[in-house]
Amino acid sequence: MWWSASKIRSHLRYPVHSLTEPTMGFAIIASGGKQYRVQPGDIIEVERLDGVESGPLTLRDILMVEDDDGIRVGQPTIDGATVEATVLGAVRANKIQVFTYHAKKRHRRRLGHRQTLTRIRIDSIGPPSTISAPTEETTDTPQAATSSKATAKPKATAKPKATAKPKATAKPKATAKPKATAKPKATAKPKATAKPKATAKPKAKAKPKAKAKPKASSKPKSDAS
User: CB 113: neighbour CB atoms within 10 A?
Assistant: First the structure.
């Protein structure tokens, strides 16, 4: 099966610099929590690999492989399958803008970020001999079904169930004690009669005002000498 360059590009996380037609099959690998479809000669960029700056690299998380023998799918990975690669160096992805905004809080923040990646070149995919072949499911034929029934062992006879023990007779409930008779309520005492109010004393009569004294008559003026 032949793959076009556009189809290969659509199956990859990052653009491939070598877009040749596949001749040796392909594999799907997992790295950094992502999956990549690779074949020999591809150059891809994966999440940063710590402790690896350059040199050969062996990838062992192989999820699927297609070769001359067909397609093999792992559960989740294929035991024994490897992909040999070469680390070309560390690169940085394009800058992205990170903008945070909180409504009605006067919060505005803008940051830039460039992710660090590792660029690798795929050299080869593990040989088919190292890849475990998928197990074929056997289908039951009518003859096999009848033979399996004939060779089936007879079921063991069930043991008789033990007889249930008779339940103990329930004890008679104790007779309830008679309730004590309620005591009669004491009769209420008669209220004391209210004392008559004291009669108000008559007000004393006002004394008559004293008559004003007559003014003294003025003396006649003496004649001038």
Answer: 10
